[in-house]
């Protein structure tokens, strides 16, 4: 190998690797720096030197005509690649990237070479440092000899936590060379992984040859430690070209995007992730800029942060306890023969001195402490995707900052600020950029308050890229995507929800187009259940408003037209359907009934009441639908109580089949015990009907009655029983009792049976 090439094997996102690399670069002062990564990143590399570039950041590579096919190359401030990039830019040295192109990586999903999903260049490279093997981590062999639990612990202790200096790279190369020989001999990584690495390393060698050809001085090569032996191996240029020949490609676009601490963690599924990004950032403070922060100051800083977070959570964490924890961590490190306290020593000391042996307080802050809560930011001068740029403008206008931690915000839609934030979040939802999830609206305070759960993830940049086909601003993309979706949909219930979403997102043109599409779909729809499901959504908009302008006349006409169709077809649709269909019909029917009452059209309500009476009377209708219809007939006072009681008796008394009777009584009583307690005439009618049953019929009906009453809460059943026991429910059977003593005796005899019917344990 050309002596001008200097190979530095690092671990991605390793603070010790980064510190040692900076010292090595200062000593070598190379004329060019090669960094493991897709060459497409080269045109964006110079932006890393801008003042406003604050890690964690990532370079997003995505397929131009299919943005969902994307990958990220993340950087933390303690990533060796980031430090090498900044070092070169600060000194005006050229920077190149030497991994396989993103064009090939993104095409590899369909490539016979791997048969795998696209893997991030950073991920693949980091996997090379500490690879996810088939038969075990090769570094485990070194860890076992050195007395560590696994390869990760060994690498952290030897490289990341100890700041060994430039000389460590020679030792790393020697160790990895031996491990690769053993791994390849025993096929630890597997054939697919080895074949992919061979292709990537062929690209790396070709890039290195070109760099040495173009540059007369020294070239520093910063790659994952696993790749160093392969770059050192002498391979002919013809062999490398043969290895990459015939690889499929796609057209790629790239951009800088913010990243987050949580997505740097291995727990997020990121193959190159680290266990505790928050800890590594703190560790970087000990090693950066070549300054040696003393172990005492380093330990005190960590314990101070722990105690501060605990106090934010409402726990007592005195300064004296933090001092004791620092001393204990230093003592534990000395006992365990560590140069400085590691994460294990810090944890044990915190648990003992600050949390007094109780893990619970520590678990409350572990997420923020170990994973971190930082989201990076891109300098304003960096070109971004149009939608990302528009979102940034919206975030500033709304004062809605993306945060890595999940949090809830309450918006008052009567204020300009609240309405603006709500509009943004609703528009983002329409283009599938789910930064926020609406968890509460219209609950208790009308429609002038919304509660959102916000959680920003870097992958939302991919959704923004996908939405670019619909427009270059969030408003335009949301409107166009909604109108496109409306044309694709035929489900009237979903279209009704889409109308509401348009109005909430303040997209009047899209709302108008979606309403027109809903009208067309409603005319063609023969599904009464779906038609019923549209009414509550539309009536809710009309009844409560949305704090935005709405087309009231158009919506009211649409509700009336759909309600006419429902009223005309409900009876026919409820006949001869199975139990599953009946449950769906009943749920839609219940919501429709409430919405129609809110709508306030007397003519439509009158027609609906006649339809309910027909459904309650006819045996052709499903039993559960009949039971619900009878209850609605009673609640709307269409029939007198005697007629309701007579219909109830006919539906439940033999020769009615037991299964049908059970479904009927269950739906009839489905509104709950509280409603029944307040409706004393209905409760008295049920009581009178029970009193009129003969013994054989009562025994036959007991399972169905128990099924209906046990749907009530236990407290509700107890209250009904207490009311009966006190004689508060007037019924015909009470006239058979001669005086109070006879009535009391009768009640005492009946109570055990009533307890059985209601499923109340004695």
Radius of gyration from CA coordinates: 36 Å
Report, as a whole number of angstroms, the end-to-end distance: 89 Å
Mean pLDDT level:
83
Number of helices: 35
The number of strands is 10
Shape: elongated
Classify the helix fraction into a percent range.
55-70%
**Fraction in beta strands:** 5-15%
Strand order, sheet with most strands: 1-6-2-5
Structural class: alpha/beta
Biggest pleated sheet: 4 strands, parallel
Low-confidence stretches: 112-135, 731-742
Care to describe what's here?
The protein has about 750 residues and is α/β, with parallel strands linked by helices. A 4-stranded parallel beta sheet has the order 1-6-2-5, sandwiched between helices. A hairpin with a 7-residue loop joins strand 9 (about 435-440) and strand 10 (about 450-455). It is elongated, with a radius of gyration of 36 Å. About 45% of the residues are buried. Mean pLDDT is about 85; it is low at about 110-135 and about 730-740.
Task: Write a brief structural summary.
By secondary structure, the protein is of the alpha/beta class. The strands form 3 sheets. The protein has a 4-stranded parallel β-sheet with strand order 1-6-2-5, sandwiched between helices. It has a 3-stranded antiparallel β-sheet with strand order 4-3-7. Strands 8-10-9 form a 3-stranded antiparallel β-sheet, with helices on one face.
């Amino acid at each position: 190998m050309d002596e001008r090439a200097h190979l530095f094997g690092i671990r991605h996102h390793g603070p010790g690797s980064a510190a040692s690399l900076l010292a090595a670069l200062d000593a070598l002062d190379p004329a060019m720096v090669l960094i493991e990564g897709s060459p497409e990143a080269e045109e964006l590399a110079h932006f890393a030197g801008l003042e406003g570039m604050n890690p964690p950041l990532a370079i997003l590579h995505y397929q131009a005509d299919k943005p969902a096919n994307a990958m990220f190359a993340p950087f933390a401030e303690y990533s060796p690649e980031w430090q090498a990039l900044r070092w070169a830019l600060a000194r005006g040295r050229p920077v190149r990237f030497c991994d396989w192109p993103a064009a090939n990586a993104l095409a590899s999903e369909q490539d016979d070479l791997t048969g795998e999903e696209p893997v991030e260049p950073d991920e693949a490279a980091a996997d090379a440092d500490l690879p996810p093997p088939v038969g075990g981590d090769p570094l485990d062999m070194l860890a076992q000899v050195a007395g560590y639990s696994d390869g990760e612990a060994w690498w952290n202790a030897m490289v990341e936590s100890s700041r060994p200096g430039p000389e460590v790279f020679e030792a790393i190369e020697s160790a990895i060379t031996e491990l690769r020989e053993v791994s390849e001999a025993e096929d630890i990584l597997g054939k697919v992984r080895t074949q992919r690495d061979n292709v990537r390393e062929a690209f790396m060698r070709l890039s290195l040859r070109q760099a040495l050809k173009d540059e007369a001085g020294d070239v520093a090569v910063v790659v994952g430690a696993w790749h160093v032996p392969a770059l050192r191996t002498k391979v002919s240029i013809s062999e490398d070209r043969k290895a990459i020949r015939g690889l499929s490609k796609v057209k790629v676009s790239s951009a800088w995007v913010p990243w987050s601490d949580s997505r740097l963690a291995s727990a997020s599924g990121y193959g190159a992730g680290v266990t505790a990004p928050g800890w590594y950032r703190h560790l970087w403070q000990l090693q950066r800029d070549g300054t040696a922060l003393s172990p005492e100051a380093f330990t005190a800083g960590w314990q101070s942060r722990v105690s501060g977070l605990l106090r934010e959570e409402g726990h007592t964490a005195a300064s004296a306890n933090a001092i004791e924890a620092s001393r204990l961590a230093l003592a534990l490190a000395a006992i365990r023969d560590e140069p400085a306290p590691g994460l294990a020593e810090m944890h044990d000391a915190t648990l003992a001195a600050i949390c007094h042996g109780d893990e619970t307080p520590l678990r409350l802050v572990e997420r923020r402490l170990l994973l971190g809560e930082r989201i990076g930011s891109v300098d304003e001068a960096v070109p971004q995707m149009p939608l990302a740029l528009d979102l940034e403008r919206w975030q500033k206008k709304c004062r809605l900052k993306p945060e890595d931690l999940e949090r809830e915000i309450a918006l008052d839609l009567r204020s300009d600020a609240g309405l603006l934030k709500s509009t943004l979040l609703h528009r983002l939802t329409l283009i599938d950029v789910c930064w926020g999830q609406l968890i509460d609206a219209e609950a208790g305070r009308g429609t002038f308050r919304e509660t959102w759960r916000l959680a920003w993830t870097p992958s939302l940049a991919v959704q923004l890229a996908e939405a670019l086909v619909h427009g270059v601003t969030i408003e335009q993309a949301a409107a166009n995507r909604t109108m496109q979706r409306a044309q694709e949909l035929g489900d009237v219930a979903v279209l009704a929800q889409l109308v509401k979403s348009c109005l909430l997102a303040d997209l009047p043109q899209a709302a108008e187009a979606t309403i027109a599409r809903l009208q067309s779909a409603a005319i063609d729809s023969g599904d009464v259940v779906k038609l019923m499901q549209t009414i509550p959504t539309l009536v809710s908009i009309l009844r409560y408003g949305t704090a935005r302008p709405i087309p009231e006349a158009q919506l009211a006409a649409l509700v009336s037209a759909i309600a006419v169709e429902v009223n005309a077809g409900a009876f026919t649709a409820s006949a001869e359907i199975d139990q599953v269909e009946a449950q769906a019909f009943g749920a839609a029917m219940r919501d429709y009934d409430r919405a129609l009452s809110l709508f306030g059209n007397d003519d439509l309500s009158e027609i609906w009441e006649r339809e309910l009476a027909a459904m309650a009377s006819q045996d052709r209708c499903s039993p559960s639908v009949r039971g619900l219809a009878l209850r609605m007939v009673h609640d709307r006072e269409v029939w007198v109580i005697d007629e309701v009681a007579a219909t109830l008796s006919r539906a439940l008394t033999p020769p009615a089949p037991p299964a049908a009777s059970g479904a009927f009584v269950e739906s009839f009583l489905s509104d709950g015990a509280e409603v029944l307690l307040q409706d004393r005439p209905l409760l008295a009618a049920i009581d009178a009907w029970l009193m009129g049953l003969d013994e054989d019929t009562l025994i036959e009906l007991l399972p169905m009655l128990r099924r209906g009453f046990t749907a009530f809460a236990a407290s509700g059943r107890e209250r009904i029983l207490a009311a009966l026991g006190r004689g508060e429910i007037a019924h015909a059977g009470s006239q058979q009792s001669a005086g109070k003593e006879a009535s009391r005796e009768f009640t005492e005899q009946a109570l055990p049976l009533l307890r059985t019917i209601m499923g109340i344990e004695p």
